[in-house]
């Protein structure tokens, strides 16, 4: 028996199941079709625990694996505004993040050399070879910090990566002017601009007295670590794709 699952690409819900049952020879009859297809429409979820793998938008009640894009596009508010209105809300399910991580790990296990190839290509849009080496080093460390819930070093490293990428891309001499130039050139969105601006000074929190004097500005937490990670990944993909055009 063959079972096929059809999954919605946006919500990760299973919309239907197809059971393929082999046809049989009947005495005095012709051979039936190779497969008898039986479709069962499963509604919103395939299994009872599928609901546990979705996040419910607290504005419209829609259930998704990732809320950030939905909130920005459908409700015209930033993720920061959503988090402010609904404290403790998650933007992405832990299962979804784990699935992405597991997929990448399985590919690296099949091809041990792939990790080296990927690392060398991640910043191929940066012309400065020495800077590429430093970016690759800190990028790897930032991802490791994020996986291990080390929010402060993750925030500092991702902010530093974004700063270096924007300065190199715009040719500006400071993070502030590079950020303004990136917004003007469309390299970052207005939402990303405001998010980066909020945590721009978090790089200085490597000095503990600096962090103590402003009480961390409320940015040393998992939300900002994951937000900067998402912005950094989007920025890298955007600039790499632009290089290919």
Primary descriptors:
single chain; 245 residues; mainly alpha; 3 domains; 3-stranded antiparallel beta sheet; two-stranded antiparallel sheet; 5 strands; globular; disordered N terminus
Secondary structure: elements and pairs:
Elements: E1 2-7, E2 14-22, E3 35-41, E4 55-56, E5 63-64, H1 68-75, H2 79-85, H3 94-110, H4 114-122, H5 129-147, H6 151-170, H7 175-185, H8 190-199, H9 208-214, H10 222-244
Provide an overview of this structure.
- The chain is mainly α and 245 residues long.
- It has a three-stranded antiparallel β-sheet with strand order 1-2-3, with no helix packed on it. A two-stranded antiparallel ribbon has the order 4-5.
- It is built from ten helices and five strands.
- Strand 4 and strand 5 form a beta hairpin.
- The model is unreliable at 1-50 (pLDDT under 50).
- Helix 6 (151-170) packs parallel to helix 10 (222-244), helix 7 (175-185) packs antiparallel against helix 8 and helix 8 packs across helix 10 (222-244).
- It has three domains: 2-49, no CATH class; 54-104, no CATH class; 111-244, no CATH class.
């Amino acid at each position: 028996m063959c079972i096929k699952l059809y999954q919605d690409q946006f919500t990760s819900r299973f919309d239907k199941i197809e059971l393929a049952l082999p046809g049989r020879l009947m005495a005095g009859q012709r051979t039936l079709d190779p497969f008898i297809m039986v479709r069962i429409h499963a509604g919103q979820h395939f299994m009872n625990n599928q609901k546990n793998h979705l996040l419910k938008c607290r504005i419209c009640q829609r259930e998704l694996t990732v809320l950030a894009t939905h909130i920005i596009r459908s409700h015209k508010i930033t993720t920061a505004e959503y988090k402010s209105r609904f404290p403790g809300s998650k933007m992405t399910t832990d299962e979804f993040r784990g699935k992405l991580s597991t997929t990448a790990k399985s590919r690296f296990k099949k091809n041990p050399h792939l990790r080296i190839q990927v690392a060398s290509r991640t910043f191929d849009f940066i012309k400065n070879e020495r800077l590429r080496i430093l970016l690759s080093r800190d990028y790897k460390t930032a991802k490791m910090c994020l996986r291990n819930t080390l929010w402060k070093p993750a925030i500092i490293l991702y902010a530093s990566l974004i700063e270096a990428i924007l300065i190199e891309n715009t040719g500006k001499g400071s993070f502030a002017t590079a950020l303004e130039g990136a917004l003007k050139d469309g390299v970052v969105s207005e939402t990303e601009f405001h998010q980066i601006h909020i945590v721009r000074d978090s790089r200085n929190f490597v000095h503990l007295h600096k962090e103590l004097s402003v009480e961390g500005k409320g940015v040393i937490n998992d939300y900002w670590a994951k937000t900067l990670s998402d912005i950094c990944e989007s920025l890298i993909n955007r600039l790499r794709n632009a290089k290919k055009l």
